[in-house]
Amino acid sequence: MSPRIRWEAREEEAAHDGQPTVRRSLSINKFTTLDWHTISPEEILRRLSTNGTSGLFTDQVKRRLAEYGRNTLSPPPSHQFQQIFKYFFTGFGPILFIGSILVFVSWKPLGQPPAQANLALAIVLVGVFFIQAAFNAWQDWSSSRVMASITTMLPDKCLVMRDGAQAIVIASEIVPGDVLLIKAGNKLPADVRFLRTSSDAKFDRSILTGESLPLSGTADSTDDNYLETHCIGLQGTHCISGSGLGVVVSTGDATVFGRIAKLTNEPKPVCTVIGVVILWAVWLRKDHPEWINVPTLIVDIVSVAIAFLPVGLPIAVTASLTITANMMRKNKVLCKSLKTVETLGAVSVICSDKTGTLTKNKMLVMECTTGAEKITLESARAGTASSFATSGGNTNNAMFQLRLVAGLCNASEFDATTLNLPLHERKINGDATDQALLRFSESLGPVIQLRRFWKMNFELAFNSKNKFMIRTLSVSGKEGLDLALPPMEAKIFQPDEDMLLTIKGAPDVLIGRCTHFTASNGETHVLDDDIRRDMEEIKNQWSAQGRRVILLGRKVLSNQAIGFTASTSPGQFEMEIMKHARTGLTLVGLVAIEDPLRDEIPEVVTGDFALTAQAIAMQCGIISNPPNLIHDISALSSPGPDPDPDPESNKLAASEKPAATAHLSPPSDLSLPSVTSITLSGPEMMTLNENQWGQLCKYNEIVFARTTPEQKLRIVRELQSRAEVVAMTGDGVNDAPSLKAADIGIALGSGSDIAIEAADMVLLESFSAVVEAVQYGRVVFDNLKKTIVYLLPAGSFAELWPVITNVLFGLPQVLSSFLMIVICCFTDAAAATVLVYEVPETDVLLRKPRNLRSDRLVDWQLILQAYGFIGILETVSSFAMSYWYLQRNGIVFSDLWFKYGALPDGMDQAYYNAQLSKASSIYFVNLVVMQWFNLMAIRTRRLSIFQHPPAFNKNTQNLYLFPAIAFALCMAILWLYIPQLQVIIGTTDVPAEHFFLPAAFGVAVLLLDEWRKYILRKRPRGFIARCAW
After folding, report:
1. pLDDT mean over 423-439
2. Measured distance CA(137)–CA(150) in Å, rounded
3. In which band, very low, low, confident or very high, does the pLDDT at 501 lie, cut at 50, 70 and 90?
4. Distance between CA atoms of residues 604 and 857, nearest Å
5. Alpha helices (H) along 563-600
6. How far apart are CA 1004 and CA 841, in angstroms?
7. Phi then psi for 703, rounded to 5 degrees?
8. pLDDT for 975-989, tens place per residue?
9. Of the four listed, 175, 462, 469, 1013, which is most buried by Cβ atoms within 10 Å?
10. pLDDT band for position 473 (50/70/90)?
11. How far apart are CA 770 and CA 652, in angstroms?
């Protein structure tokens, strides 16, 4: 967790007494010696030998990297002893440790005489204790490596001025003196003194202070306290709105974040066991005192406890999540935590922003308007060139005015290193919409020429609340006036006093503020109802084609109108500009921007027009109905009870959803389609009541248009309140709140820093990887269920019954405690681990999403499969094989029933013990061999082994299964066939038929399970299906 501090050192001193507080107070007091916030920007630039316009030069950067080091924090101390202790005593480690001590005690001093088998069992438990610690250490190293590789794949990048041009550099290469360009969504890579900020610049310091309210950024100091002033940007904080320019003053451990980081881094089986103890204490100890003595009781207790604990499960769980995260990483899907992988399997709704998420965020202007006429980009270029040539340099036409607003009301910049390339190949730093408009403006004439004639003096950056951007400009030459205004307006423009307000944004927000428009000849006319209607029609046509529509406008402002004086504060100036932007604007033109689509997704949450959102949704397959079957808000009735939420109503994709009936009235001439679709705007959504939200969430396909961040957040919460597990995808600053609120936040690698920070998962390349990620999430859950179904029959159920029959019915314990431990910790553990490599079954995405409230990892269906089906078959067949062998060798079952260790008449004790050891080994082999076939049966939950073979099919195979089976066989041979071990642990070799007979039983188990799966596939709603795990 990121460190959080209270800025006032005096509060720290008052809170506690003692040396640690003194050290912390002294460290924080070091900030009082810093004066970066109190000196002037000119003095800062002089001290750091840098330039606010051109930045540092390459040789300066190299020297400062050598002097200050890379901009990274020192790693915290490792605390190796605590870490090693954790490896040993997490999971089932304490039980293994205590169990081994108890078994050692039962060997000596309690054992009279000491039993070598107990000593061997204790040694094996100690060995398993060390093995699981070693595996924990390897797993920690492996998962840390995966997470570290994910971090390196998401390097922080920032935009700086170097060698007089903008350059993108990795944050670790920032040095003091670098001039940093900051925009909304950026995370500050170091401590920065602001040289210039926009009026709406705000920074989120919650990572350091815990305060939820953002602070405004200013160029002037607002507080003598370095940690409180608004002119300092601290490393790790986010710019959530606005823009700015700053100079780096501290990097690495010298930053506030680095200094604080240094401070923070200073130095059910129980019931079964109780049952066994109670039976021994109240009955067997009195009536059969020689049957189970104290050492035997201890060994039985340890055996039952470890038998009931699936020792391989923690290994399998961690391995499964780590392996899956690694596989997702190779597919360019990065999960920030292992828990994210598992939660993905329960996702029932994916909400997605459109721009940059559904689309490639590579925008191009396709058409524009002058007056009320539509013009293609090619015609616009040709018209501009011919107009300029035929008029002898006269720039009096609407296209030049459109070019000027597009180029100057624009926060993007060409990358200096690519200026010599063709326009379509040049790299542009900035927002995708600004990039498209900058290319458009450049295609009509050099933007650098416009910026030479006009100088910016105020900027209001675009944000999702206002949905427009403003820049005010002062002219520096008559040529600039000719490019911006028609002749009549240019004549009355006062260069020393007047300013040109340029504005761009959403037409539905700005067109109502326009009172004039620029005609095709460049002259300004009153915007009457006819022209307004024509503009609306053009806007709707473009939106219906899935294009983003931007309105470009202007207005001339005089100093007298603004009331600007030297004492006017930036806040007052902004308020005046906003007031003048509310009316009297001149509509210069509309532009249509096209953004190519990414792959399809199920549900859309977007900030574009309803028609644009609907068109995009239809293009990418989100909406499958024709336009006449797409409902709107009128289909949601207000009265009536709130319908019950339907957990199946919003699934991963339309093709995966069963038909759902929405609570609405279809048009009278149409029947209700099997898949229901609806489109709503953000303002319409805010009028919905609970009943209407209930109806809305039952639709299969939903498109929200023109939504603000607050509305996106509400969508997520409304869906969550109806038992949906929501994944939210986005890439912008305005997506961050909903990314945090969603069960899974998904950001794109190309998105803003703040979106990536807020997300749980990052897509580096294709958006289609979302479906793969959900598939892997479901596979993790599936594979863990398979692991449990594999471990429980032999490692729990079949091991428990020999102890129960021994205690209750006086039968010999037909499976020795030692061999129980071997099954749990060796023969079953390897196969359980390799099950995590199982690939998805072909129907995994066709199932309904897992319900977090009702679908458990271990439910009654799984217990029925593990105990009621496989467990009973394995237990009964193992008992049968053991007692059948005893009967063939003169020890009939009736001579053992309720005998509590009494020998049959005329039976030699040594012979009796030897045959019991043989029977125990047979029971063990029977379980080991049958588990091989159980392993093959539980690989799939619904599909046949022939549909999902373990080999010879690259799409389904898991070749790790066969080494795991071979390992189990080797373990059986090791403990049963080595004479030296036979003497110590009381095992013997097993007749050959007792390897083949369990194989026949295993085939029967496999065939019975194949029959069960066949019925399940044929009758998916039948009784067998309801009992299926």
Report:
1. 87
2. 20
3. very high
4. 31
5. 570-580
6. 23
7. -125, 120
8. 999 988 888 888 899
9. 175
10. very high
11. 10
